[in-house]
Specification:
α9 packs parallel to α10. It is globular, with a radius of gyration of 20 Å. By secondary structure, the chain is an alpha/beta fold. The termini are far apart. Strands 6-13-12-7-8-9-10 form a 7-stranded mixed sheet. A 6-stranded mixed sheet has the order 2-1-3-4-5-11, sandwiched between helices.
């Protein structure tokens, strides 16, 4: 009996320590700092980076182009080893203060286990991107480091608001979003650490060392080009893995270019998410401006946010 109580005590202490764990925020950028552009997934062989380079120069930043830019290995930007070496080089270079992934697609998961985060832990820096870059966001979150979900160098059609939000996130300026009320929103307020990213990627990482930890978190999800039944499958998987029952709130970004089968699923994408999450009675924002659209506002994953959803408007305020 004493031995049993001892193990319970150890478990409680461990849980409390985990809850008290504070996410490490990499140093914010300042004028004169250098940011690297690399490819971790789909190839980028086009000469299309000049607009993004000009954004960075206008922000007072220097730019280094990684060796993976221009590499061509079928769909990917070189071999897994080449992409890993390029990313590792930028992580280990003390002069590089942020790493900006050029585009998504698929492939980051193929190189994640080739990376050594020893020097990164000693001298963290910002990792930026969305879509397939969710692999890095989730992995870094598990290691205890914040990162930025935002536009990428190929996002040439990004709105001025989206670009400005990334600049604010990188330079540590205040981030607060107010968006109109959506009919399906679930009202309420919550405070917690923001986690998440692309739903398909989060789903694919479950069971791995990069799997998302939803405990007492506020979850952001978005996706592109998926069938409705597959959205239901992914949401049900999150539910059955216990990822939804411990959440404090949910922010649903763009669910873009969804598809249905010849025999309809019977619900649209927001109705699917609402159906799966309704039992948890937590605040939910739908159609938040982040994801696969030009108006892709930056979100600092790993930071604490205050979420307030009312019948008039919804607010997302980063509090630390």
């Amino acid at each position: 009996m004493k031995k049993y109580l001892f193990y319970i005590l150890i478990s409680v202490v461990s849980s409390n320590l985990q809850a008290q764990k504070k996410m490490i925020i990499p140093p914010y950028l300042k004028k004169g700092d250098t940011i690297a552009i690399v490819a971790t997934a789909r190839k980028n062989v086009e000469d299309n980076l000049q607009p993004a380079i000009e954004w960075l120069h206008n922000w007072g930043l220097e730019v280094v182009i990684g060796k993976t830019i221009g590499l061509d290995k079928n769909q990917l930007a070189g071999t897994d080893e080449e992409r890993a070496v390029d990313f590792q080089t930028m992580m280990d270079n003390p002069n590089i203060k942020a790493i900006w992934c050029v585009r998504g697609g698929y492939g980051t998961v193929r190189m994640i286990d080739l990376l050594d985060f020893t020097k990164f832990k000693q001298s963290p820096k910002w990792v930026i991107g969305f879509s397939d870059v969710t692999v890095l966001h989730s992995h870094l979150n598990n290691l205890g480091f914040a990162s930025i979900h935002g536009i990428m160098p190929v996002s040439v059609k990004a709105t001025e608001e989206a670009k400005e939000s990334l600049r604010k996130a990188l330079f540590g300026e205040s981030l607060e979003y107010t968006v109109p009320c959506e009919p399906m929103n679930r009202y309420g307020s919550a405070k917690g650490e923001l986690v998440g990213g692309n739903l398909s990627i989060l789903y694919s990482l479950l069971g791995s060392s990069s799997a998302i930890d939803c405990t007492d978190k506020i979850l952001f999800i978005e996706d592109l080009d998926e069938y409705l039944y597959h959205i239901d499958r992914m949401m049900m998987n999150l539910k059955r893995n216990g990822c939804l029952e411990s959440l404090k709130g949910i922010i649903v970004g763009g669910m873009t270019k969804m598809h249905d089968n010849e025999i309809p699923w019977g619900k649209n994408v927001l109705e699917i998410i609402d159906d799966v999450t309704k039992p948890y009675h937590i605040p939910v924002i739908y159609n938040f401006p982040a994801g696969h659209s030009a108006d892709n506002h930056a979100l600092v994953l790993g930071k604490q946010i205050y979420l307030d959803v009312t019948d008039l408007e919804s607010k997302v305020l980063f509090t630390d």
